[in-house]
Amino acid sequence: MSSALPTTQDTLPRPLNDAEASRLRADFPILGRSVNGTPLTYLDSGATSQKPTCVYEAEQHFYENFNAAVHRGAHSLAVEATDIFEQSRTDVARFIGAKDNEVIWTSNATEALNLLTYSFGNASAGLGGETARAFALGPGDEIVVTELEHHANLIPWQELALRTGATLKYIPVDEAGALRMDLAEQIVTPATRILAFTHVSNVLGTVIDVPALVALARSVGALTVLDGCQSVPHLPVNVKDLSVDFMAFSGHKMLGPTGIGGLYGRAALLDAMPPFLTGGSMITSVTMEKAEYLPSPMRFEAGTQRIAQAHGLATAVSYLSEVGMDRIAAWEELLGERMLTGLGSIPGVRVLGPGPGAARIGTAPFIIEGVHPHDVGQFLDSRGVAVRVGHHCAQPLHRALGVVSSTRASTYLYNTTSDIDALLNAVADVRGYFGVGK
């Protein structure tokens, strides 16, 4: 746990400040290293966050003291490992406002979304019995996504549509990248069975109006699937308040280890879905002819699970809770405003996404006139500034914005205003270095 911040509870949420963020940095040893002879300025948390010492110490502590298979043995190590594993589920479920049996461990959010689409595909093939028929799709049914989606919340639905004969539709964005909510009511129809959408755009950092889309889906009886990869790490998220049916999230973006993510689903829905992977630990009985399956979450957790990683993720959410998600969100909003304002004032820089007034986390995508984003990224790296370049697994969105790729800077709780200033100073020198705009 972090010992850097006071534990007193404020009546009103207040953002972190530079002094507090600087103290938090001491919990992240990698942030103390240098890159190309320059102190590291890490502004790529949208891709993967850095980890506090307590997270990897938790994994090591598990392996050194409790390592055993869970749900399988009667010996002390197996019982202790199972207790840690399931307590980790409880802690992560509580963090997002879910019940224990509503959180399924996956390798990442991509697997979580594929779990859903393959389970629905199995139902469409007649598997899972009568209770699974509610998830079956076929010709005449519609799946709706948005033009904002990360490929992980687009391609699995494309494939499901191809396998079942359903039609895939999408809600477009305008020229600035804002979701066309004025068209959503025409696109979501009584034939819509699934509405899948991101909570926060991984490219633009814009926060989507989840209640409006959930209400629209409810009005036609469609299931809702939320991509929470960029919201769960940065905003207070409660799945019950959001009223979504499913939500995917990924541990490595929220201070947790790689190789661990989760799928939230309403318990009644998960228990009715056919399994995705089959094998050991997810059955009640097996004969040579057939098998019967356990309820959620074990129904979807075949084989040896990510035990140490789950413990690491639970440690990460404890760290985030101690700092305060409301304070983290408020701090990132301030850092984001500083980035957007600063970048917008640099000649030749175009900031992507809606203008002032749009709700955003601390993420700023931009392009520099006459300089390819990969060249921008390499120049910034020479100054010790780590950012993401490319299409960020969102080619359709970039195409809608009239660009092929972009540079993205993204913040987290350990960033300071000096990190933002380092970015801005480096960006201001890019065009001169490449001899553009003289």
From TrEMBL:
GO terms for biological process: cysteine metabolic process. Keywords: Pyridoxal phosphate, Transferase. InterPro entries: Aminotrans_V_dom (IPR000192), Aminotrans_V_PyrdxlP_BS (IPR020578), Cys_dSase_SufS (IPR010970), PyrdxlP-dep_Trfase (IPR015424), PyrdxlP-dep_Trfase_major (IPR015421), PyrdxlP-dep_Trfase_small (IPR015422). It catalyses: (sulfur carrier)-H + L-cysteine = (sulfur carrier)-SH + L-alanine. Transmembrane segments: none annotated. One of its GO terms (molecular function) is cysteine desulfurase activity. It comes from the Bacteria. Pfam families: Aminotran_5. Its cofactor is pyridoxal 5'-phosphate. Its EC number is 2.8.1.7. It is an enzyme of class 2 (transferase). Residues 41-423 form the Aminotransferase class V domain. NCBIfam families: sufS. Belongs to the class-V pyridoxal-phosphate-dependent aminotransferase family. Csd subfamily. Catalyzes the removal of elemental sulfur and selenium atoms from L-cysteine, L-cystine, L-selenocysteine, and L-selenocystine to produce L-alanine. This is Cysteine desulfurase.
